[in-house]
């Protein structure tokens, strides 16, 4: 259910998958876990908000979610990113902007690990939501 992915702080998760469930076990006992997608991905969150705004057409619950979402992004985007080399092809330190981060932890902190880059359409989608 889509509403289960909306959090009170404005976070919208793409998937409840935390990477802990086995999806395949080999005869030797080793296994593969599902991928960990339990983050707020800018692209997915933006597309979800755009859909909510189009389908639900306002109302107090939608308005409150939009306010929480906007407040969360205001908070996130006011922080410095801990990441140092986000540009394609390893362009070097200093190429990161928190605006271009592809995903954030559910608590609103900036994701500081390498997996998930490069994705650069999230900020533009979120700009459309917030206009």
From TrEMBL:
Which residue ranges traverse the bilayer?
none
Q: Pinpoint the GH15-like domain residues.
A: 9-131
Name a single GO biological process: carbohydrate metabolic process
Molecular function (GO) terms listed? hydrolase activity, hydrolyzing O-glycosyl compounds
The cross-references to Pfam families, in alphabetical order and at most eight, read: Glyco_hydro_15
Q: What is this protein called?
A: GH15-like domain-containing protein
Query: From what organism does this protein derive?
Result: Spumella elongata
């Amino acid at each position: 259910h889509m509403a289960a992915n909306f959090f009170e702080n404005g976070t919208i998760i793409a998937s409840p998958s935390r990477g802990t469930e086995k999806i395949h076990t080999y005869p030797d006992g080793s296994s593969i876990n599902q991928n960990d997608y339990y983050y707020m991905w800018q692209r997915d969150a933006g597309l979800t908000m755009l859909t909510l705004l189009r389908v639900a057409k306002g109302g107090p619950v939608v308005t409150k979610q939009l306010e929480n979402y906007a407040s969360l992004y205001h908070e996130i985007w006011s922080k410095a990113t801990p990441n140092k080399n986000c540009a394609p092809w390893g362009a070097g330190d200093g190429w990161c902007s928190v605006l271009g981060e592809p995903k954030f932890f559910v608590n609103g902190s900036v994701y500081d690990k390498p997996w998930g880059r490069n994705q650069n359409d999230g900020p533009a989608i979120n700009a459309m939501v917030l206009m």
